[in-house]
């Protein structure tokens, strides 16, 4: 096997640059496979304008075709979003203009069709309840590619289908889990046309439950997967919303109902809602709920007949959790399932991946860390479980499949000192796309063929930022006051030298979340202006194992808060930070932490809350008011992972998760910054987005009013039309300008 070295200095312009009037270059063969940035000079001039740091990532999604011959990615060309495909062999490309809309993931169906999907979370059960509101569903729907703007249907029709879910009612609803509901458009990149999958399957509108899988049928690729039938009323005592397995054409969207041989297509007394297929499209298992017996069953197909492999009692008014099939086990016979840990229930459920053997026996938990963060990896050729990737500060791969373990090791070795994610592989995993970020690299996608030694840089995600002004990021750890080890990310300004610098602490939102290595736009803005930036993964953060996450229970505003101050003392002791020039800035929970910090002038010179929480009781009541009936927290505080099929994450909108960190409700009032205004000594900046659906804008307004009434130093900035995550360039720029102006007044860098 030949091995190659690709350095940015030698390789020249990336693939993405080809679409912006720039020239591409070829890789050079050497003795090892490495993709890395060139050595960069120290900056000698003034920093670039802040707008270059707040631009959206140039590349949003990347996928490799099954044969590894084509790359697809979503990018921005001037003012519009485009889907671009590139053929590695002849360097030909195709471009499809996309209308605005959220893209959760992309994947290849065949040589000419790319699937664009947007996922939301729904309750799993015989009524397929919806967790999010119809407004959320409409706003997250992916618009079809722009072909004929005068034609009715397409995205508008699909949005109407999703909104219809809110009004559907079925007698005898039973809920037993969480699942993905996905709007999928099949894009013909040659014809630049799109077909919304599910719209033409039957007389009813149908919604995909996950992204359909491409399989070869009679020499032609077909898409196969479960679809939810969106009927308005029940017929013959059957469930109103039934799930069927469909095989459809990626070009026309026309499909054929797949009979799984269960003899229950009319869904009388039984509700089949999921199937597991092998790589050839053969049905090997399915999930069934029996109305008469109130029983959920995972069935395997044995000698052409369905046999029960696992059964669970699920009563109508109970909140039992049914296992979800994730894929084939390591031996090719067992099934990997995502299931609740025995004995755990409701909002306190804990989850694991297990192997369900052919004889019905369950293995011990498979994942090395946390099933809601660890992701199963399957061999793309065999479909068997290859291992797991643990999400945290950087991806960590734990693979048992020898070939996959070796290839993923090579992938990580290809970018020394960076956090490497394997984004996509071909059916032959020797061909893959990786994303490397961290250190002094803002992040770039690379194609690697470990068989031929060919590599290709697909593109940087932040090419506008001059390389010498990308602030260096490194991992640090320090001990909290009680001895707990806290991991953190430290961003060092390109200049001046890191010695007794003004410090900004950026606690992450969540709090059940974590900061990962990579380009953080606000940290980069602050570092470019001379600030040292610390991003602590305080106790309660996920990504560091269940025990560390559990250490945050009941510690909202308590030890979670002191973990931040302990980081300041650590950097001061190292001589890196000036303890007299420290401010705290955060979003969401981080905004709450900033407001709490304003009561502690001995540590914090100023505080900025971006979409932060000021009144805990009001916030919790607001979160609960958004939940559907039944409350999904009672089944599982989970949300479907939009970019990882058949995987789940903690639900950031879950009241159960929030209250677990808060502890006893009797203490919430004392923990609310709104009620601590008399103790606030540091100046405060409040920034809030009017379209924030995670924290209502009134949380900042009432804090502003209370501070003003008490004669405290407060600055208030409202961002019209922006969301909680500050996803638009306009919102980021306005936030950065407000923050820098505030810091110049109360904690200048020089």
Automatic annotation (TrEMBL):
Listed GO MF terms: aminopeptidase activity; serine-type endopeptidase activity
Signal peptide boundaries: 1-29
Stored SUPFAM superfamilies: alpha/beta-Hydrolases, TolB, C-terminal domain
PANTHER family in the record: DIPEPTIDYL PEPTIDASE FAMILY MEMBER 6, SERINE PEPTIDASE S9 FAMILY MEMBER
Record flagged with keyword Protease: yes
Organism (species): Asticcacaulis taihuensis
Transmembrane regions: none
Entry-linked InterPro entries: AB_hydrolase_fold, Peptidase_S9_cat
Annotated GO biological process: proteolysis
Start and end residues of each Peptidase S9 prolyl oligopeptidase catalytic domain: 519-619, 668-746
Region span, Disordered: 134-153
Full protein name: Dipeptidyl aminopeptidase/acylaminoacyl peptidase
Alphabetical keyword list: Aminopeptidase, Hydrolase, Protease, Signal
